[in-house]
Design brief:
The chain has 813 residues and is of the alpha+beta class. The protein is 24% helix and 28% strand. A hairpin with a 2-residue loop joins β33 and β34.
Length: 813
């Protein structure tokens, strides 16, 4: 036997894809179980309409869709091919939707997928049933198509079985066997199945299976309507062929339409959310049709049918012959749930995956399980361990799942916050911020000021270009005034939402030395910028490590995934602890050329340039508030991050606020923060760099102590040092009055050559800034490129970085 014993729960498109991908790697001790008959076990895969649209703001999701389309295109069964390459056509009936199609075409260009926004006449040629004058344009993606999911299940399971996998239909999992914190097998209604690894691919039943492992899975099944018409009068196109026209998507009315042998299949998301608890789904034996199919509610579908009759006049003489309310999985953040359990070793999940991405997920999971990392896709946004505890609450999961269903076809701005439930997490400064007219956005449940209306008086007399209508959403000229004032005087930034950990114990130094790329062995008071790397040398995160005592560190991390990764590496002897202290503490960033004027009179500790140097930390009192002060600045100005316990947070704010008024102290928000950090060229993990990038490409190679003999990912990252395939480059738009937002394609010679990560107007450099991934040959200062933005090509130029204070004189003063 090759590889450990693997049990896959669920034989839909995800479980089948995983079995195929793992067995293709030579793993032959694989058992796939499903409670239903195969290849139609009765889950979402069995009734899925099969439309595969690849457009997505997520590079990972688009790449998974592309992989799935290509793989299915190579598969067939005796019943026919597993993919019908008919293409996709998304149509716009309003100017707002047409603009959004240009944005979606930009995503596709960024991710390397051919697509074009076409005029009404071309829409009519591609899709003749469209009513005359009904659409303003469309997005045509030739590589989209229809997945035949049942055939794909059969084809992939057949391939896995031919390599030795055991396929066990009509086998219900009743529980898990465990020993010593590890999974050891499945308990089924047909006997036990021993296993070293268990992967839950149970789809809408996922929460029930995960609960057997002590895991809360933030997934809710929701009903989605699908109806089939009678054959169209006149027969339409070739009724012997299942589909010959492109799939049609009319997102403005929450609709999609596909061919089926001279008739239409119509899907609708515009109805009320109808959630169903996983425990309430009927069994295979009791379900009238299949467990994932519920009775069609005609009244919910009436608006859809009326709009289809308007858009496609040929349907007026047809009727709805059959319909279902089919169950699909939705999550709290609209993304799949992949990865290992945090508590039970050997238990993995691959959940909330639609047919569109299923083969890509199968490949990703096979790589992750077999190699310890995924080399084909960046999975940080899909990792099941990404959630904060409140995001696992059943009420939150249900509410967010229902909201994501309702918004599935909405036009969503990159800064658009969660609206409900709010507020959930507030910092000790929340009331003070509201008093100052804070405009709050949301992140990980935290209320985060984006700007303060109290600073509106600072706008007059400043040159603050106003962006276009799309970019101006969630924007105010106050943002520019706050950014400029930070560089001119001093500002207070609430940094509380950034996660921080305490790493302590006699083994803490050795633990961090092995975990991160920097030198954690420096004396107490040292602060070090480091990276966490995966086994391939990709960037898992960037962190700051502050040594407070010999056996105590404060570590600033990027989120729950970093906490999970560090805890998985803890030594078994208990010599190291990792504690999330975020909720019980708070942080204010005091930054600007007058920051020392505000702080020094409040403390007996020497905060002079020599008393506390850049990237050093100390404990002190500010007034009567004990703080941990770290001399860091993400905005590129003199200042400190000041940490204290949550109970003293308001006192810290009030102390600084009162002392700062004569020095011009203001509160400033995240909008100014983002502008200032881009002027300094500071990277943001998850946006500018992710697992797929290495430090040398991302411009953070300085954080790798190559002289260290051992740290996670060391050998791999050193091998990658000489083979840079792409570079994160700084661009400025030639027209400083234009602003982009991120994910736009970058063109060179008329061809897509890269994509934008972060962008903002630099209010103190007077430039419109965009960071972008480019081939090394283009990432040369002075190189002219174009950025695709809502159908326009905006000229831009590669610039040397940073744009502001390259000599670091303001930070070190």
């Amino acid at each position: 036997m090759t590889g450990p014993r693997v049990a896959v729960i669920g034989a839909g498109v995800v479980g089948a894809a995983l079995a195929d991908e793992l067995s293709a790697r030579g793993w032959d001790d694989i058992t796939v179980t499903d409670q239903g008959p195969l290849p139609e076990p009765g889950g979402s895969s069995t009734h899925a309409p099969g439309l595969m649209f690849q457009a997505s703001p997520s590079k990972t999701m688009a790449e998974m869709a592309r992989y799935t389309a290509r793989k299915f295109g190579s598969l067939a069964t005796a019943d026919g091919p597993c993919f019908l390459p008919v293409g996709g056509l998304e149509v716009a009936t309003t100017a707002e939707r047409l603009t959004d199609l240009h944005r979606r075409q930009g995503w596709l260009a960024s991710w390397g997928i051919d697509a074009a926004v076409v005029p009404p006449g071309e829409c009519a040629r591609l899709y003749p049933p469209l009513a005359d004058g009904a659409v303003l344009g469309g997005l045509h993606v030739p590589a989209d198509g229809l997945a035949k999911s049942v055939r794909a299940v059969k084809a992939q399971l057949n391939r896995a079985a031919a390599r030795g996998a055991r396929i066990r239909p009509r086998t219900e999992v009743l529980g898990l066997r465990t020993a010593g914190g590890r999974v050891t097998g499945l308990v089924t209604d047909r006997g036990d199945i021993p296993a070293d690894l268990v992967v839950c691919c149970a789809g809408i039943w996922g929460p029930r299976i995960a609960r057997m492992a002590g895991m809360s899975l933030p997934l809710v099944p929701l009903q989605h309507q699908l109806a089939w018409t009678s054959p169209l009068p006149g027969g339409g196109r070739d009724q012997a062929a299942e589909a010959t026209r492109p799939m049609l998507r009319h997102q403005g009315s929450d609709l999609y339409v596909r061919d089926r042998f001279g008739a239409f299949g119509i899907g609708y998301y515009g109805h009320r959310p109808m959630p169903v608890a996983a425990d309430d789904i009927a069994s295979v034996a009791d379900a009238p049709v299949m467990p994932s199919v519920l009775p069609f509610t005609d009244e919910d579908f009436a608006p859809a049918w009326a709009e289809v009759n308007r858009l496609l006049p040929a349907t007026r003489d047809a009727k709805i012959e059959e319909g279902i309310n089919g169950l699909f999985s939705f999550t709290a953040d609209d993304l799949p749930l992949l990865g290992p359990s945090p508590d039970l070793d050997g238990f993995w999940v691959a959940e909330a995956v639609w047919v569109t991405h299923s083969a890509g997920v199968g490949r990703a999971m096979a790589e992750w399980i077999a190699d310890g990392y995924c080399s084909s896709f960046d999975l940080h946004a899909l990792d099941v361990n990404r959630f904060e505890p409140h995001q696992l609450a059943p009420g939150y999961v249900r509410e967010r799942g229902c909201r994501n269903f309702a918004e599935v076809y909405d036009i969503k701005h990159p800064l658009q916050p969660v609206e409900e439930p709010r507020p959930l997490r507030t910092t000790p400064f929340y009331e003070r911020q509201r008093d100052l007219g804070a405009y709050f956005l949301e992140g990980a449940g935290w209320e985060r000021p984006h700007w303060y209306e109290a600073n509106a008086g600072l706008v007059a007399g400043r040159d603050l270009p106003e962006p276009d209508a799309w970019a101006a959403r969630y924007w105010s000229p106050v943002i520019g005034a706050e950014a400029q004032h930070t560089r001119e005087a001093v500002a207070l930034y609430d940094m509380t939402p950034l996660k921080r950990l305490e790493v302590g114990g006699p083994g803490a130094e050795a633990f961090l030395q092995e975990a991160c790329t920097g030198n954690a062995a420096r004396a107490p008071g040292a602060v070090t910028y480091c990276l966490l790397l995966d086994e391939a040398g990709g960037i898992r995160s960037d962190i700051t490590v502050a040594r407070l005592e010999d056996a105590l560190y404060q570590v600033g991390v990027n989120g729950a995934l970093d906490t999970d990764w560090l805890r998985r590496r803890l030594p078994a002897d208990g010599s190291v602890t990792v504690t999330d202290i975020t909720a019980g503490t708070c942080c204010l960033g005091l930054w600007g050329p007058r920051a020392r004027d505000v702080l020094q009179p409040l403390t007996g500790t020497d905060f002079s340039a020599d008393g506390l140097k850049y990237f050093r930390g100390t404990r002190a009192y500010v007034g009567d508030v004990p703080v941990t002060a770290l001399r860091l600045s993400y905005v590129g100005e003199l200042g400190w991050e000041l940490y204290t316990t949550a109970d003293l947070g308001r006192r810290l704010w009030d102390t600084l606020w009162e002392a700062g008024q004569r020095h011009g102290l203001i509160a400033a928000g995240r909008g100014a923060f983002n502008s200032l950090r881009l002027e300094k060229g500071y990277r943001s993990f998850g946006t500018d760099m992710t697992h797929e990038h290495d430090p040398w490409e991302a411009g953070v190679g300085f954080a790798v102590r190559t002289g260290k003999t051992s740290f996670a990912g060391r050998d791999a990252v050193l091998r990658r040092r000489g083979g840079i395939r792409r570079t994160l480059a700084c661009l400025t738009l030639d027209d400083p009055g234009r602003v982009v937002l991120g994910s736009e394609p970058v063109y060179s010679g008329g061809e897509p050559s890269g994509y934008v990560t972060s962008a903002a107007y630099g209010y103190t450099t007077g430039t419109s800034i965009a960071y972008a991934w480019l081939p090394p040959g283009l990432a040369v200062p002075g190189t002219a490129v174009e950025i695709g933005y809502l159908g326009e090509r905006l000229p831009a130029t590669v610039r040397a970085e940073p744009l502001f204070d390259p000599d670091m004189t303001r930070l070190r003063g």
